[in-house]
Amino acid sequence: MKIVAVRVPEETKKKMKKVPEDWSEYLRHAIEERIMQDERKKILGELKEIFAKIPKSPRGTAAKGIRGDRDRG
Fold this sequence. Notes:
This protein is mainly alpha-helical. 71% of the residues lie in helices and 0% in strands.
């Protein structure tokens, strides 16, 4: 594991000591969450590009398919 240092104002550090929290774990989790958020955003953008390239079906295609299934069943 690598070390990442974070500087905070002295007043913030004093307040942190009053909160029962494992700050290293908290920050590690927050960083991982932020990275996942960015990865999801990139994947969503890629999916939007893929869907934009798919040709649209003519209006009424779904209704015709459903009607055809009902007629056969």
